[in-house]
TrEMBL record:
<protein>
    <submittedName>
        <fullName>Serine/threonine protein kinase</fullName>
    </submittedName>
</protein>
<dbReference type="InterPro" id="IPR007428">
    <property type="entry name" value="MlaA"/>
</dbReference>
<dbReference type="InterPro" id="IPR029058">
    <property type="entry name" value="AB_hydrolase_fold"/>
</dbReference>
<keyword id="KW-0732">Signal</keyword>
<keyword id="KW-0808">Transferase</keyword>
<keyword id="KW-0723">Serine/threonine-protein kinase</keyword>
<dbReference type="GO" id="GO:0016020">
    <property type="term" value="C:membrane"/>
</dbReference>
<feature type="signal peptide">
    <location>
        <begin position="1"/>
        <end position="20"/>
    </location>
</feature>
<dbReference type="GO" id="GO:0004674">
    <property type="term" value="F:protein serine/threonine kinase activity"/>
</dbReference>
<keyword id="KW-0418">Kinase</keyword>
Length: 427
């Protein structure tokens, strides 16, 4: 009997070892900072043929002079030597644009796997809000993705003579993951691409709830005071050799994470840096949306501002505004003008994957991955994902927010699904 029990225990240990998940960073905050800014898969090409294209989507007269630098929509494209190949759209995360490190990492991975790639900026990036958003008030998933879908069609049209696409695919991380699913929903009717498969990496379920969690990380550390936030930002930028340069003029998550990923930090400091990266995106969101919509929350006289105006006082007025500030002061009042019965709860629902819940339940071509220690999800969100996706959802035991998406095991599972439609993870 003892021998039998010993064999059973040994079998269980071997089974556990065989299927254990060996991502090397246990702490979700460190994973988010280090992993999401590091390629953790060996053999991926360092350089691929990548070219940036521009498209004039909006009429120039509708773009304020102060935003001249982003008047044209930009995207990056990498092509295979063989024209005949599949093409995948890579969608950037919250507030990030087509040129961020994480997007380029994904393009390198898929280029090596034999795909043409087109990288698309987030609807909450400066680049997209100014050049491609129909109203510059992002946050409603269906409306935002109508804009993204239009931009994708124009981007493909720009390069289509260079390729012979066998099938179209789409993937995104963070908000880009949620966007990927909504774009697939839109495409079921429009049929511009007929996506073969869709892959969602660490998607938020409800954009508003996730944003509030990240805002709180920073406020808990700084007491919600702008002086504390400014001090943290300046301390971070001081770590750059030579101080702040033009390279860091548009500071985002990639910049913050690359600066601090080698530092020894407490949990509260790690959370603060994660919150800071998100807050900077929220600040851009508040300023640009207010300016373009003439909401007069932060910019009282936008008509007097041109490309030669010193913007320091205007940026100061935004005062590190949160995503919640954006919703309450700009987003909700803007949409309320078009629907007097609209409530804030209605608005939050429109920022949720629940707007396409029925489609997500029934579409076998969509798969999602997240982590058990995901920073932007709550228990209700996990329950929603499990209930809706069932066996089309993988929850890795660790990885934080997007911290393990370049880890080899994750990359292999992603490519297996995109390439073959096989979605399997043993743990």
């Amino acid at each position: 009997m003892k021998k039998l029990l010993s064999k059973i225990v040994l079998f269980l240990i071997l089974s556990l070892t065989a299927f254990s998940y060996n991502f090397p960073i246990d702490d979700p905050y460190s994973a988010t900072i280090i992993g999401s800014a590091s390629m953790m898969t060996e053999g991926v090409s360092e350089n691929i043929p990548l070219k940036v294209y521009e498209i004039q989507i909006k009429d120039k007269k509708d773009i304020p002079d102060v935003f001249w630098y982003a008047s044209k929509f930009k995207f990056s494209f990498s092509k295979q030597k063989n024209k005949k190949a599949p093409l995948i759209f890579v969608l950037a995360g919250t507030g990030s644009d087509y040129s961020t490190t994480r997007v380029k990492f994904m393009q390198r991975i898929f280029h090596d796997a034999g795909y043409h790639t087109i990288a698309i900026s987030s609807q909450m990036s400066q680049q997209f809000m100014i050049s491609a958003s129909s109203n510059s008030v992002p946050g409603l998933l269906l409306e935002d993705n109508e804009d993204i879908y239009k931009a994708m069609k124009l981007a493909y049209n720009k390069i289509k003579d260079q390729v012979e696409v066998t099938d179209f695919y789409i993937m995104g991380y963070s908000l880009g993951g949620s966007n990927a699913a909504v774009l697939s929903y839109i495409d079921e009717k429009e049929k511009a691409f007929n996506f073969k498969r869709v892959f969602m990496v660490n998607p938020p379920v409800n954009l508003y709830d996730s944003a509030v969690k990240l805002d709180k990380y920073l406020d808990d550390y700084t007491g919600g005071k702008s002086a504390g936030i400014e001090k943290l930002l300046n301390t971070t930028l001081a770590k750059i050799k030579g101080g702040l340069t033009s390279e860091y003029a548009n500071i985002g998550a990639d910049t913050i994470y690359n600066i601090v990923k080698g530092d020894i930090l407490s949990d509260s400091e790690k959370k603060a840096y994660i919150g800071l990266a998100f807050r900077l995106a929220s600040t851009d969101l508040n300023f640009i949306s207010d300016f373009i919509t003439k909401s007069h929350i932060y910019t009282k006289n936008p008509e007097k501002v041109d490309k030669y105006t010193n913007m320091k006082e205007y940026f100061k007025a935004v005062n590190f505004a949160t995503f919640e500030d954006y919703v309450n002061k700009i987003g909700f009042p803007y949409y309320k003008k078009y629907n007097k019965d609209l409530t804030t709860e209605d608005l939050k629902e429109k920022a949720s994957l629940r707007v396409i819940e029925d489609y997500l339940r029934t579409s076998p071509k969509i798969a999602a991955v997240t982590n058990a220690d995901e920073l932007i999800l709550n228990e209700k969100d996990f329950a929603f994902l499990k209930d809706v996706f069932k066996d089309r959802l993988i929850i890795y035991p660790k990885g934080g927010h997007c911290g393990n998406m370049f880890y080899k095991e994750n990359v292999d599972i992603m490519l297996k699904f995109i390439n073959e439609g096989v979605f399997k993870y043993e743990n």
